[in-house]
């Protein structure tokens, strides 16, 4: 419980956003906008990080069409919890609200995290106090000049990109999907490789009624991933894909 009245008054005026959000390249601008709008609403009308509202009001607040669901990647990336209360009411909570908005110790940990990130070089072997850093957000650390993203957030980023480009609604938490992505990551492929595969196949299949159904994780992220990644752009009439082969390949993965 917050006892300091000055802190309560400040909460109604301000909503904090962590500066390292600039480095979270896997989070879309649309999700940042939803996070900001929801955070302002909770700061102004909520209590201890929780806002009681309706599904319709929440969709209007986040500017989501009534026939669409709140993106799972947004819920995962920002630790949002949505609970149905009954009577058309829902509770929306930022689970780490107090740490980010009220607790000043978070600022100290954030500064420590930023200093560690700046000081890591190709020659340095720095042991990072993960327990302290994870109190801010368990998303990434910077090693040897490269950003390493924790796998659950990477899954959400890839599937969110697929859904946006292919106009689909796949979940990033499906077991088979995460297994396929993880397998490709172990083979050395990176986030940009997944995006390129999605772009290649969306360009080739999206407007084709026969092949559009193959714009799904089982097909895109399976054993033909490297081939899709390296294929040259094709004209829409130049398909060299055998539909029966695709169907057979998908069944083998089930």
Question: Explain this structure to me?
Answer:
It contains 13 helices and five strands. It is mainly alpha-helical. The chain folds into three domains: 5-99, no CATH class; 104-146, no CATH class; 151-253, no CATH class. It has a three-stranded antiparallel sheet with strand order 1-3-2. A hairpin with a 2-residue loop joins strand 4 and strand 5 (146-149). Helix 8 runs parallel beside helix 10. The radius of gyration is 21 Å and the shape is elongated. The N and C termini lie far apart (49 Å).
Q: Which characteristics define this entry?
A:
254 residues, mainly alpha, 3 domains, three-stranded antiparallel sheet, two-stranded antiparallel sheet, 5 strands, elongated
Rg (C-alpha, Å): 21 Å
Sequence stretches where pLDDT stays below 50 over 5 or more residues? 1-11, 121-148
> Which class of secondary structure composition applies to the elements?
mainly alpha
* Terminal-residue CA separation: 49 Å
Number of strand elements: 5
Main sheet characteristics: 3 strands, antiparallel
Whole-number tally of structural domains: 3
Tally of alpha and pi helices: 13
Shape: elongated
In terms of DSSP E residues, the strand content is 5-15%
User: What share of residues is helical?
Assistant: 40-55%
Q: How much is the average pLDDT?
A: 75
Widest sheet: strand ordering: 1-3-2
N-to-C series of helices and strands: HHEHHEEHHHEEHHHHHH
Task: Give the arrangement of secondary structure elements.
Elements: H1 5-13, H2 29-45, E1 50-54, H3 55-62, H4 72-77, E2 80-86, E3 89-94, H5 97-101, H6 105-119, H7 130-133, E4 140-143, E5 146-149, H8 151-166, H9 175-186, H10 191-205, H11 217-220, H12 225-230, H13 243-253
Antiparallel strand pairs: 1-3, 2-3, 4-5
Helix pairs in contact: 8-10
């Amino acid at each position: 419980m917050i006892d300091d009245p000055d802190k309560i008054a400040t909460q109604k005026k301000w909503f904090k956003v962590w500066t390292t959000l600039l480095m979270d390249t896997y989070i879309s601008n649309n999700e940042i906008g939803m996070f900001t709008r929801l955070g302002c609403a909770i700061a102004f009308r909520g209590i201890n990080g929780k806002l009681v509202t309706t599904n319709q009001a929440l969709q209007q607040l986040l500017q989501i069409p009534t026939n669409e669901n709140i993106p799972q990647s947004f819920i995962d990336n920002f630790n949002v919890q949505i609970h149905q209360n009954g009577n058309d009411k829902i509770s929306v909570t930022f689970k780490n609200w107090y740490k980010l908005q009220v607790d000043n110790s978070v600022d100290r940990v954030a500064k420590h995290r930023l200093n560690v990130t700046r000081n890591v070089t190709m020659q340095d072997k720095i042991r990072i106090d993960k327990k302290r850093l994870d109190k801010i957000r368990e998303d990434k650390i910077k090693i040897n000049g490269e950003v390493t993203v924790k796998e659950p957030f990477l899954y959400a980023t890839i599937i969110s990109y697929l859904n946006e480009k292919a106009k689909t609604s796949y979940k990033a938490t499906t077991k088979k999907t995460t297994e396929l992505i993880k397998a490709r990551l172990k083979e050395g492929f990176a986030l940009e490789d997944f995006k390129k595969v999605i772009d290649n196949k969306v360009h080739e299949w999206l407007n084709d009624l026969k092949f559009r159904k193959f714009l799904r994780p089982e097909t895109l992220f399976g054993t033909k991933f490297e081939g899709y990644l390296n294929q040259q752009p094709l004209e829409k009439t130049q398909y060299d894909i055998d539909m029966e082969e695709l169907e057979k390949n998908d069944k083998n993965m089930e």
